Each structure stands twice: as C-alpha cells, then as structure tokens.
From TrEMBL:
GO terms for biological process: fatty acid beta-oxidation. The keyword Nucleus does not apply. InterPro entries: ClpP/crotonase-like_dom_sf (IPR029045), Ech1-like (IPR045002), Enoyl-CoA_hydra/iso (IPR001753), Enoyl-CoA_hydra_C (IPR014748). PANTHER family: DELTA(3,5)-DELTA(2,4)-DIENOYL-COA ISOMERASE, MITOCHONDRIAL, ENOYL-COA HYDRATASE. This is Enoyl-CoA hydratase/carnithine racemase. It comes from Shimia haliotis.
Length: 263
C-alpha cells in the first residue's frame, strides 16, 4: 500500500501522505516513503515549489504506537546513532529532508500534528493550519525526547521558555496558540488551498533567485552569530544572480508589464 504520493504540475510538486485511515501515523514503511519522496525531488530542476499535506482528517498523528513493539527488540544505539542520511539518521531525515530541499516547501495542516508529525511540519518553510488544528511535542508522554530533528528547527521558530514548556509537558496546543508562538505561519479555513495559492505565486518568481533566497536564509539562521560570514554569503549568492538569464527575464517582464517566462 502506497504511503506517499507525488504529483508535479505547473512546477509545483504536491506531496501527500496517503495513510489517511490511520491519521497518517508513522510506521517504518511510512518513514521510508516520506524520506524517499523528499529525496526524489532533490535534483528536480522542473520543481520550483513543494506543497506537503496529509489526506483525511489529520496531517499526521506521529509515531504509530504499534511500531513501538517492532522497535523494542532493537539496540537503540545501532538504530539511532549511524548517520545514514548525511548528517542525520532516518528518523531525523523525515522532517529535515524538506528543509534540505533547494526549493521552498509549504505545509498544509489539519486535524492533528503530533510528535513526529509536528516535526515533519517544522521542516517546511511555511505552515498553513486549519482553525483548531492540534499540535504537540509528544515524546515526553512516552518517556523519550524529541529525536526527529525538531531540536535543530524549533530554536529558530519560538522562544526558549515556550520550547522547554512544550517539551517537558507534552501538552497539546491548538493552531491559534501555535500562531502566537511562531510555530505556524497563518490560520485559514482551507490550508491546502492557501498553500497552493502561495506555491503558484512563488512558482512565478525567478527559480534561481528563489533557490538562492532559501539557501541564504538557511545560512543566515545557522550563522546568526557570525554576521561577517552572512554578509559574505549574501554577496556571493547575489553575484551568481545578477545579469544571468533569469534575472534578465525578470527585468524585461517588469518593463513590458507581463509575467516572466523561465526556461
């Protein structure tokens, strides 16, 4: 049974978690499929934006509890410590692959995004949530810490005291609170429609400039205590764009009052 579908149209890749009857809960097959879906888009020059969503009532309910039994007999160090995906293990790659993609990723959320499901959403550049969507850093409920890349992402999004409270308690919180804490971008009645509308807008911009912008923002976030390095990278990336075909097409389109057309 398929766990993830990918459809590419008009330079937008729609990636959908397709285990809706199980609230898109993460079993081993689902983890492999999500990581593979993200990795399959890594070299797709025709894809300018990704929209990530989950079918059914919920985006993702987190780890399938039945998977605990399957993992119980395995050595945790052997399962978690090898860096099987560059700087990450499989569990970490599932959310981080979306941040590693060169093009923006927009996530549409509804129902619940618990535990690993919440961390997957954090890997996106932008998150639209339906009113009342529930979130939780749920790992403490099971006596463990967040281990799917959340701690590489959350400190960039919310305050330390909020992060600590949510991690220590595993308490659920709703989209309205998540918006206040900086964990979702916008609340909307139809998050998938909002995600697609934003994707269409981004897909009409210079593909090389959009990718450079995502790379630059990531570099700045990772080097916020080294402004000299950020300023140098800003200049380096700008030099790769000025006078190149995509930028020249943007200039001509602006002058001719038309939409740009990119190869």
């Amino acid at each position: 049974m398929s766990r993830v579908s990918i459809e590419v149209e008009n330079h937008i890749a729609r990636v959908t978690l397709t285990r809706g009857d199980k609230m898109n809960a993460l079993d081993p097959e689902m983890l492999d499929a999500i990581a593979a879906a993200g990795e399959s888009l890594m070299g797709r020059d025709d894809v300018r934006v990704v929209v990530l969503s989950g079918e059914g009532a919920s985006f993702c309910a987190g780890l399938d509890v039945m998977s605990f039994g399957a993992m119980a007999g395995k050595d945790p160090e052997e399962m978690l410590m090898p860096r099987t995906h560059c700087n990450a293990n499989l569990f970490q790659q599932v959310p981080l692959v979306w941040r590693k993609l060169p093009m923006p990723v927009i996530c549409a959320l509804q129902g619940v995004a618990y535990g690993g499901g919440f961390q997957i959403a954090l890997g996106a550049d932008v998150r639209f949530a339906a009113p009342g969507t529930k979130f939780s850093i749920m790992e403490m409920k099971w006596g463990i810490v967040p281990d799917m890349g959340g701690m590489a992402l959350l400190p960039h999004l919310t305050r330390s005291d909020v992060l600590r409270r949510l991690t220590y308690t595993a308490e659920p919180f709703v989209a309205e609170q998540a918006l206040e804490w900086g964990l979702v971008t916008e609340i909307t009645e139809d998050p998938l429609a909002a995600a697609m509308a934003l994707a269409e807008e981004i897909a009409g911009k210079s593909p090389s400039a959009i990718r450079a912008a995502k790379a630059l923002i990531g570099f700045a976030e990772d080097n916020m205590h080294d402004p000299d390095a950020v300023l140098l990278e800003e200049s380096r990336l700008q030099a790769t764009l000025i006078g190149k075909p995509h930028q020249m097409e943007v200039i001509m389109a602006n002058m001719q009052k038309r939409a740009p057309v990119f190869d």
